[in-house]
Amino acid sequence: MPDFTSHLYVFILAAFLGLEVIRRVSPLLHTPLMSLTNAISAISVIAAIELAGAKETTLSTVLGTIAVAAASTNVIGGFMITDRMLRMFRKRKP
Amino acid sequence: MSGLLAILDPDEQAAITSAIATTTYILAAVLFVLALKWLSSPSTARRGNLTGEIGMAAAIVGALLNHHIISYEWIIIGFAIGAVIGIPMAVFMPMTAVPQRTALSHAFGALAAALVGTAHYFLFDLQHAPPTSLIMFFLCLEVLLGALTFTGSLMAFGKLQDLLPTRPLTYKNQNFYNFALLAAAAACAVTLIIHPQAWWLFPVLLLLALTFGVLLILPIGGADMPTVISLLNSYAGLSASMMGFVLDNKLLIIAGALDGASGLILSIIMCRAMNRSFTNVLFGAFGQVQTSAAATDKKSVHATSPEEAAQILEAAQRAIIIPGYGMAVAQAQHKVRELYDQLTRRGVEVKFAPSPAECPAT
Q1: Looking at the DSSP assignment, which residues form a beta bridge with residue B320?
Q2: Shortest Cα distance, chain A CAs vs residue B295, angstroms
Q3: Predicted structure pTM score
Q4: Which 45-84 residues of chain A touch chain B by CB within 8 A?
Q5: Which of A11, A23, A32 sits opposite B39 (nearest CB)?
Q6: I want to staple B103 with a disulfide (CB 3.0 to 4.6 A). Which of A82, A93, B156, B253 is the partner?
């Protein structure tokens, strides 16, 4: 039985941290930040990996493999798009 | 390292790898916080993205060390497919298309969350050891958020890519139908929480959530889409967090909560920058069906020089130029300046009104 109370504490504290950390984001960076949070939201890849590798049932392996593919698309796409955007900013400001 | 592991018995090996996995998860959580912090300031932004990448790599290494994994073939196949889709999506992308590619990339992440939730539900021995109501609560929320974000993001992508009509699509009592659908999904979820064995309700819940995602985005116009993508981001983060509650995994909870909170605050900041109220963006199309209908006919693009454009605009006394994201990525600021010079020379008063949410130059 997972310890839901301590999970809830972790959840609330992390949420506040998220609010505080980006509250003063420069408007210049709205779009790249959107893209970075997009990449981080694919953290479910770690759960997908376990499903695809544990081979418990056919259904879980199939769904897990599709989930690994989808989440890694998100991870790769998200970080690469963010990087391309940020590289462009630097070029414009010599 | 492997030599050391060989002399230990399997239990000790498992304990060591699980300790390494936990350490990489903690490292990943710290790196994600730093990534977000550094990305909110221009001078550290690139370092922020790199930090995020290292964090994600650490998380994936930790996941690969999991002792439940007995074979890596399907994981490798999954990664290969992800790379085949993800890399071209990012490389062959015009910089003007960033918002819709983010939306598309988002649809994939949300799909993963919904699939993982579904797989976990059906892994439970529903007859003999059904999941507790508390686990079902988080599981239903995870699947609900994941599924609606999946179709919602696809809709946002379609609208921005001009595959779907960009204008808000509204009909009578729209908000009523949307809430009715959400209520039906909630009823499904509550029933599943009370009776986890009712497995046939699970696909129904999925279907309702997928439909709700489509209906949620229908009434939202193309200009508000970046805000909505950020909000969908927040939903996907929350979905990952709920997954963390189900799986007893704190990294999922932390990364998901960080993402959920920052996505939410970012969409509020973007609304404020555009002088839009947050509720207006979400429910704004309600009751104003006619306003945007006229602007929906497809107009072709006219290529022209600053001089020609100035001649056309000469008839006006005052002109307002609204530089947006498109001008910035096309690096057209010099052309815009030429147009400005030409117009002022002809005695036209020119003002600039940059779109703050869209134009990185402001």
Answers
A1: B351
A2: 26
A3: 0.80
A4: 45-57, 59-61, 63-84
A5: A32
A6: B156
